[in-house]
Amino acid sequence: MQKLSEWGMNYLNNLNLPLGSPSYRYLERICHAHLTTIPFENISKLLYFRDRQQLGFAIPPFDMFVNNYRQFHFGGTCYSLNSNLMSLLKEIGFACYHIMLGKEHIGIIVDVEGERVYVDCGAAAPFFKPVRFENDPNNVSQFGDDKVQLLRVDGEKHQYKYVRYTQGKQSGNTWEFNSKKAFELADFSHAIEKSNQPGATFMSILRCQLWQTEKDRSVSLVNNQFSIRYANGNTIKKTLTSAGEIEKVITEEFLLPKLPVAQAIDVLKELKVDIFSGK
Predict the structure, then answer these.
(1) SUPFAM superfamilies under this entry (predicted)?
(2) 100-149: per-residue pLDDT in tens?
């Protein structure tokens, strides 16, 4: 077990976890804590875009990522979440590297206890524990009717695909990946630049999602549509009519009162996006 930097220890404090040895069990604790503590959201992305000239980065560096959760409840989308999570894992002593899924998503492979496993806290998906995709061809990561599978395409060539299903129907893109081909964050530069252009997916909506497994539910905001999805399949939906109502939901339901939602809505307005239009 390695000695962590100040920011590494602060990261674990954010997750309410003690420092542990790099084992599968400890990695599982990290995954679960991450998904139930640090939100998948683009509020930070919009504010980083607004302040891009002063900040000078597309992805927040480790210290800023850790501090901005403490100060603003910032999480991020896949590039911010998984790149900084991997920095933490490396500090703890895990052997790990990034993989590219499709030509857009960044995931993590961790070599632990003689096995390669998949870790992903940046997909708003129920990866509550590392996926043993090599040894369990029927793996399913699931919460209610939301399921993700990592399916073997060609085992000898280490080719797999990521498929997600909601209510029994495929949702989102199928992402293929090579589990042994390591990538650096710099290899995603074009995809990251593209994701920060006005009109890109997370530059044209307001998005926040968090798992609350102690309540057997997840909470989700897409523009002004708030939903609570329970593990038993029940879903509650509500249309919010003002920035104030959104702030109230983020505070009372997500329990993320520091998130500067109104500022992100203002950035979207400047980008000609009306989250209340219903379009």
Answers:
(1) Cysteine proteinases
(2) 999 999 999 999 999 999 999 999 999 999 999 999 999 999 999 999 99
Q: Are 96 and 110 in contact (CB under 8 A)?
A: yes
Cα separation, 145 vs 162, whole angstroms? 17
118 and 109 in contact (C-beta within 8 Å)? yes
What residues have CB less than 8 Å from 248, skipping those under 6 apart?
none
Domain spans, the chain: 6-192, 201-270
The domain made up of 6-192 is a member of CATH 3.40.630.10:
no
Q: How far apart are CA 240 and CA 219, in angstroms?
A: 14
Read off the pTM: 0.96
Q: Could you write out the DSSP letters of every residue in the chain? A: -PPPPHHHHHHHHHTT-----S-HHHHHHHHHHHHHHS-EESHHHHHHHHTHHHH--SS--HHHHHHHHHHH---BSHHHHHHHHHHHHHHHT-EEEEEEETTTEEEEEEEETTEEEEE-SSSSS---S-B-TTT-TT--EEETTEEEEEEEEEGGGTEEEEEEEETTEE-S--EEEETT--B-GGGGHHHHHHHTSTTSGGGSS-EEEEEEGGGTEEEEEETTEEEEEETTS-EEEEE--SHHHHHHHHHHTS--TT--HHHHHHHHHHTT--TTS--
- Four-CA torsion 36, 21, 101, 58, nearest 10 degrees: 70
- The topology under which CATH files domain 201-270 is Arylamine N-acetyltransferase fold (3.30.2140)
